[in-house]
Design a protein that fits this description.
heterodimer, A: mainly beta, four-stranded antiparallel β-sheet, about 50% strand, B: mainly beta, about 0% helix, globular
């Protein structure tokens, strides 16, 4: 199985800060990488697909980059609505695997 | 637009069974491989099972192998997950999902295994 290692586990930041979350795959996955935002009690909301493509309706302050084994999710200016948990997921393999999640907290 | 709607969740006793359904619409269901993912309370996301288009191939996480069965009805655009011999560790929200470059998820069905 492809292992996805996400860091950091927790991130404390202020409104307006630039935030970067990293996801590393145990083998090359091309650009088959998605990012999700999840708030308590809600289903994961897709933010990014194919590593860098923004889902419809997602604010432009979110961006994704990377290919192969190293990927990043960047929030250019953190907003109050962005405090949530973020997950990466590979779909290169039929056996999808997820990062452990990054909780973005208010500093 | 793509819609995935899960149903069939509920409270079940340890050792019991439950069958989840996922109604799909807005895309060519028969052409897509479908997945179940779950999330236990306070935990991360765990892939459970997939079934390829036409039902030709299926696979399961080790944690559910031999107890869960995935199936699909391409005529009715439904995905199923039959869960047997349930334990407290199976308590989770179960999501059906697919990919067509983009990822599509349902809103989830809650399964609670408790006596």
């Amino acid at each position: 199985d492809i292992q996805m290692t996400q860091s950091p586990a927790t991130l404390s930041a202020s409104v307006g800060a630039r935030v970067t979350i990293t996801c590393r795959a145990s083998q090359s996955i091309g650009d088959w990488l998605a990012w999700y935002q999840q708030k308590p009690g809600k289903a994961p909301k897709p933010l990014i697909y194919k590593a860098s493509s923004l889902e419809s309706g997602v604010p432009l302050r979110f961006s994704g980059s990377g290919s192969g084994t190293e990927f990043t999710l960047t929030i250019s200016s953190l907003q109050p609505d962005d405090f949530a948990t973020y997950y990466c997921q590979q779909s290169y393999s039929f056996l999808w695997t997820f990062g452990q999640g990054t909780k973005v907290e208010i500093k | 637009q793509v819609q995935l709607v899960e149903s069939g969740g509920g409270l079940v006793k340890p050792g019991g069974s439950l069958k989840l359904s996922c109604a799909a619409s807005g895309f060519s269901f028969g052409d897509h491989y479908m997945n179940w993912i779950r999330q236990a309370p306070g935990k991360g996301l765990e892939w459970v099972s997939y079934i390829r288009s036409g039902g030709t191939t299926e696979n399961y996480a080790d944690s559910v192998k031999g107890r869960f069965t995935i199936s699909r009805d391409d005529a009715r655009n439904f995905l199923y997950l039959e869960m047997n011999n349930l334990t407290a560790e199976d308590t989770a929200v179960y999501y059906c999902a697919t990919i067509s470059e983009k990822m599509y998820w349902g809103q989830g069905a809650r399964v609670t295994v408790s006596s």
